[in-house]
Amino acid sequence: MHRIFQNFIDLLASADSAADFAQAMTVAATGLELSCFAYLALPSEVQSKPRLISTYPEKWTSHYLRSRYELVDPVITQALQTAEPFQWGIDIQPNRRSAVQQQLLDEAAEFGIRVGFTVPIHDGHGPVAALTFAAAKHSHAFEIFTHTQSRLLQLMAMYFHAHVRRKLTSEHRIAGVLLSPRELECLEWASQGKSAWEIGCILGISRNTVAYYLENAKEKLGVRTVVQAATLLAAASKRKQN
After folding, report:
1. What does the alpha-carbon distance between residue 242 and residue 228 come to, in Å, rounded to a whole number?
2. pTM for the complete prediction?
């Protein structure tokens, strides 16, 4: 398990494209004996398309995005309401779904997506995202593994999301100030209470390098402390959500 996770972190660190990230998660999921996955990050503006990285059948994902199903998807709806991972299935609590939501799940089932385990990602720095591992049928092994390893999968989801946002987002501005991807990433982890040493472990860089990026971020933002910089970051994120 440790080897799979470390390899996953290494692949994320070297990933530069959506295809690279898909490969990193595919390798990890295969090692954990999980089948297909889908990472969906909601856009800052409703009229924009979400970011989707997945191994679901392309015919299904194209239809999903074209139909704007993220607006009615019961899995995404639940992910918006909770930060805790959850299991779901086409036959679980059908009476709580609208006709449109049931139609969505019925269509997904035709592509082998009938049950799943979803990790909501609420990082406080933008719209909600979610990482889902799905399967074609109910499996006791799948249910037990996702239940017992939910924290590991949640950690993987957070790392995946952080790296995707850093590498695939074109600009990183706070209060009109442009930060480098590394400066923003270090500041985001620091705002979550992580020490320079912990951030270095997460990102695979030294503690001194983390301190360097944080100093640069503070200087660019015109503040004296990391707490003040984190406050500006939180305010910028709140404006994006409104």
Report:
1. 22
2. 0.72
